[in-house]
Amino acid sequence: MNTINSATRDLEPASAPRKGPTPADLSITVRDERFGRNAKPPRWWLNNDPVATAWHNALSATFPRGEAFFIEAVKANREGASPRLEAEIRAFVKQEINHTREHIAFNRAATDAGYDLSRIDKRVEEMLALTKDRPAILNLAATMALEHYTAMMAHEFIANPKHFAGAQGDSGDMWRWHAIEEIEHKGVAYDTWLHATQHWSRWKRWKVKSLMMLVVTSRFFRNRVIDSLDLLAQDGLTGTKWKARLAWYLLGNPGIVRRILPAWLAYFLPGFHPWNHDDRALIGKYESDFPAAVMAA
Predict the structure, then answer these.
(1) With DSSP H G I counted as helix, E B as strand and the rest as coil, what are the percentages for the chain, rounded to 5?
(2) Structural domain total, the chain
(3) Does the residue 23 lie in any domain?
(4) Contact 186/22 with Cβ under 8 angstroms?
(5) Rounded to the nearest 5°, which phi and psi values hold at 31?
(6) Does any domain span residue 121?
(7) Radius of gyration (Cα) for the chain, nearest Å?
(8) What pLDDT, on the 0 to 100 scale, is given for residue 139?
(9) Out of 63, 219, 234, 247, which residue is the most buried by the measure of CB atoms under 10 Å away?
(10) Gap between the Cα atoms of 120 and 111, Å rounded
């Protein structure tokens, strides 16, 4: 596992107590890590499993454009934010820029291993083109929903070692590094939303965010399954058997979709906030060098 090259804590002291569930002592730390520079992973880098590899390669292929969209959506709605939220947005942006850099490197390794990611990238580009002329607040609503997905998966990736058991090289470390930073900044888009919609009624706020989550969920899973099957087809793995194996990977073992369902449902509850569940202990679980120092998750 790479060591932390730079740990920049980018939060300012609060001039007033924080309102809402986001922890008052939250630190968003920018860890300038680099992965996969010395040795390229094999084609099926995750436990020699083409299905697991395809799912994560397909997910990674969406991050460079997707995270640039997240950054712009949050920045477009930050006017008038408190000094604390402004500082958290800056830290969020720095983390996302580093994530983009590392997923570009990861995607390049997948390309070098023989995969064509261009169709996935084109599909993401076309989807994002549809957001150019719509209100900035709707792009923030979409970002908030997708950030909840990254937070749910991040929690699961750290809490359940099965997901990256057998990962070759430092590929698993890259995903875990990304995950802990997603946990740290999981409330930034949501707090920006609360700020930007502070004059909305609670009903309007709930309706817009809930409808957007349903739209995002439908598109997210449909496109990621299409992308995964595309990559499996590039390995010559097609037909009902491989569709069933992908379904089992997502719903059965390790079952990322099944396992995040309760957290997904919580998004629709009145009073939801990402920090209603404080899972920062998982960061200690990742970063600790000694089992005795691992915080209980």
Answers:
(1) 65, 5, 35
(2) 1
(3) no
(4) no
(5) -100, 110
(6) yes
(7) 19
(8) 98
(9) 63
(10) 12
Asked if residue 273 belongs to a domain, the reply is yes
Q: What letter does residue 291 receive in the DSSP assignment?
A: G
- Domain range for 80 is 46-293
What span, in angstroms and rounded, lies between the C-alpha atoms of 42 and 167? 10
Nearest CA to 149 out of 225, 74, 261 is that of: 261
| SS3 label, residue 30 | strand
- Residue 5 carries which side chain, given as an amino acid letter? N
DSSP 29: E
- Total residues belonging to the chain: 297
CA 73 distance to own-chain centroid: 15
And the tokens for 288? 């600790």
- Cβ-contact 13, 87 below 8 angstroms: no
Specify the DSSP element, H or E, that contains 7: strand 7-9
**Stretches in the chain below the pLDDT threshold 70:** 1-20, 288-297
Q: What is the pLDDT of residue 18?
A: 53
CA-to-CA distance for 269 and 246, rounded, in angstroms?
Answer: 30
**CA distance linking residue 248 with residue 143, whole number of Å:** 28
User: Would 22 be classed as within a structural domain?
Assistant: no
Tokens of 25: 């002592």
> What is the model's pTM?
0.90
Could you give the CA distance from residue 205 to residue 273 in angstroms, rounded to a whole number? 13
Report whether 113 contacts 95 (CB < 8 A): no
CA distances from 52 to 82, 110, 234 (A): 42, 13, 14
